[in-house]
Amino acid sequence: MYRHGPGTGHRITPGGEFGDEAVCRVAAVGEQVTGVRVGQRVYPYPLLVTGDPGRAGTIGAFSEYILAPNARLGLELYPVPEEIDDRTAALIEPFAVGARAARRAQPKTGEKAVVFGAGTIGIATAIALKEFGCEQVMVCDLSELRLEKVRRLGFPACNLREEGAGAAAAELFGTARGLTGPAPDVDVFLDAAGDPDLLKLFQEVGKIGSRMVVVAVLAGERPVDILHMTYAQKALIGSGGYFPEDVRDVLRIMSTGKYDISSIITHEFPHAALKQALETAGRTDQALNVLIRYGDG
């Protein structure tokens, strides 16, 4: 949106509130609100917190305050466990998106997956796929900085500037039966990059019975060979947003401390430097996740 303006797949309008990734402390409580206390650390659930589901992506996370008209714990607001530090908690929202995408893939114990895109949601999806049963998950990207973060989290990585994803997957996972010959033994392809060529790649190298989940926001139409998809028993699955079960999964995963999730945060700015923060976040060769702090937080 910052680079290209409205009409690019997000419901953000100039002059309106925007932002949906936040962890907050309660600043004030209405007289009819129960169970919520001032100073409590909470995660605002974007679909419900403003009272308008159509504003799920524009709850005001880039503002100093968010108004929650009907604040109920476990519905509009989720308490953040003490085991989760502030920096990690700031990633709950994109990690819930990743958890939903992983769930949509219907992963089974022992399966293998390839995630395209080593941004926050791509990494979140890789972690969720692993937690949901996948035996091996490889992450592909063009940014060596991001791929190094992936490796430190314990995932094999493929730099697409140096090697094709199909060849790298076949080398790591072995091969299986494809419609026209041997194919990488990959059960799940997941697009968290928004590259229009990934659907073509899936149709070319996906094995029989494989499925592809698209979570990256990319407007436009792309061709699908229906006859090929039919005979190859492949599935193309969309994933957008998330549900309470995904938030609960993320809180559980983060609470274990199994993954150094905050390590994907590369920069932190005060609210006054919002423009600089947005521009930094867009430099994928220099940054991964960028945090913005408000007040004394």
Give the SSE map.
Elements: E1 24-25, E2 41-44, E3 77-79, H1 86-89, H2 92-104, E4 112-116, H3 120-131, E5 136-141, H4 144-152, E6 157-159, H5 165-173, E7 175-177, E8 182-184, E9 188-191, H6 198-205, E10 211-214, H7 226-231, E11 235-238, H8 244-256, E12 265-270, H9 274-281, E13 289-293
Parallel strand pairs: 4-5, 4-9, 5-6, 9-10, 10-11, 12-13
Antiparallel strand pairs: 1-2, 2-3, 7-8
Helix pairs in contact: 2-3, 2-8
Provide an overview of this structure.
With 297 residues, this protein is of the alpha/beta class. The chain contains 9 helices and 13 strands. The strands form 4 sheets. It has a 6-stranded parallel β-sheet with strand order 6-5-4-9-10-11, with helices on both faces. Strands 1-2-3 form a 3-stranded antiparallel β-sheet, with no helix packed on it. It has a two-stranded antiparallel ribbon with strand order 7-8. Helix 9 links the parallel strand 12 and strand 13. The protein starts with 23 loop residues before the first strand and ends with a strand.
Give short descriptive properties of this protein.
elongated; 9 helices; six-stranded parallel β-sheet; 297 residues; alpha/beta; three-stranded antiparallel β-sheet
Question: Quick summary of this structure?
Answer:
The chain is α/β, with parallel strands linked by helices and 297 residues long. It contains nine helices and 13 strands.
Rounded average pLDDT:
92
| Unreliable stretches | none
The largest sheet has its strands arranged as: 6-5-4-9-10-11
Measured as a percent range, the helix fraction is 25-40%
Structural category: alpha/beta
What radius of gyration results from the CA coordinates? 20 Å
List the secondary-structure elements in sequence, H or E: EEEHHEHEHEHEEEHEHEHEHE
Estimate the global geometry from the Cα principal axes. elongated
Tally the beta strands: 13
Number of helices: 9
Largest sheet: 6 strands, parallel
End-to-end C-alpha gap: 26 Å
Strand content: 15-25%
